[in-house]
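Q: Could you fold this chain for me?
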Amino acid sequence: MINGEDDIDNWEPYPEPGVYCNRWDPAEPEELTEQIVLAVSALLGERPEEMQPLHNRVDVDALQQMFADRATGRARSDGCLSFVHEGCRVRIHGDGRLYVSNLPDGSSPPSLV
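A: Sure. Below is the predicted structure, expressed as structure tokens.
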């Protein structure tokens, strides 16, 4: 569940309409893929098993590695990755921020800072 809730209304709204923000624990990179699936599911109002698997869109092992601690044990608090999954823009930041927004057909993703 997303911070104990599976309803996108419990997420923090971003100043831009239709964009929602939540956090994931950078110390637990395997949690990231679950958070993405649950976030998109909640935003669309669909069950995760009814959606296209995330691994059909991105390499989830590489995604987890990208945000895992460095070999020295130091956290990767920098870095950002953005992609579209199931018609939602997903933007992940190394410091634990996760943004999702629903993209209407034919629209461009909203700009996130």
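A (continued): The radius of gyration is 14 Å.
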